[in-house]
Amino acid sequence: xxxxxxxxxxxxxDPVSASPKRWYQGVTAYQWLILAIASAGWIFDAYxxxxxxxxxxxxxxxxAHGAPARQIDGYRDAFLGIxxxxxxxxxxxxxSMADRWGRKPTMAFTILMYSLFSGLTYFAHSLTQVGLLRFxxxxxxxxxxxxxxxxxxxxxxxxxxxxxxxxxxxxxxxGTWMATLAxxxxxxxxxNAFLIGILPALLVACVMALxxxxxxxxxxxxxxxxxxxxxxxxxxxxxxPQWMRRAILGMLLAAVGLGTFWAVTVAxxxxxxxxxxxxxxxHAEVMKKGQFAYGIVQTLGxxxxxxxxxxxxxxxxxxxxFS
Length: 323
Prior knowledge:
Growth Hormone, Chain: A, mainly alpha, single chain
């Protein structure tokens, strides 16, 4: 951390004074490459996060065999809570580490982390094992998202930042679609869907070979060392009179969207299943149609929103668009 955190955080473009040229003009090949690599990591983030939601009925039927339906629903909610705690811990820890170590090694480590623990879920045979593995997967997912989102914002020019971030976040739709198709394909063989989660580890080679540390991060490190300050200090951030208020406000604003997503959007799969059950549909039909409604149809709506609100931020401004 340092005396002026604004030197590492990209400044929000003023929609009035933003460059009038088309947003993609002036974007270099390297910047597009960073967007592609960061998006690939985020796609697999989404896969790792959603594969449990989409296979949980089969997973819990096997591991919690004989438990009543109400109890299985309780386990599902508990594992979701564990995943969110892991994501919070990973975002805080690896976000701080990315300031200290650099974006490249932190991104590589977090991708390896969620890939490894997702693959190990293939061998889980108890609720405790599933819970621990989901926590560590979530730490990697939360950490990778924090680093990748920062990297895109730091590398892209100001006039293209909102649109690039919108594209980056929208690629999560592809990860959810991948998880949906995988879960529909494996059906009760849910372990195979987690084994697929090892594949993102291959992305680490691209990260280490092609990603360079942003110049803004290098300059901030030099300035911090000159001032005797510490990069990545959450304590300094949350005790600085100017930045503490902004950090807490930003967290609360983010909680609105995240709370809506996890409490409402993820519930969409069970809602579709309940409706199909009341209509007397067969179990196999209930599972596949519920997965499709949640993982494909509903996620498409989310993707359209993600692509739309980047340009809207530029047009209307951040505050109006958020409202």
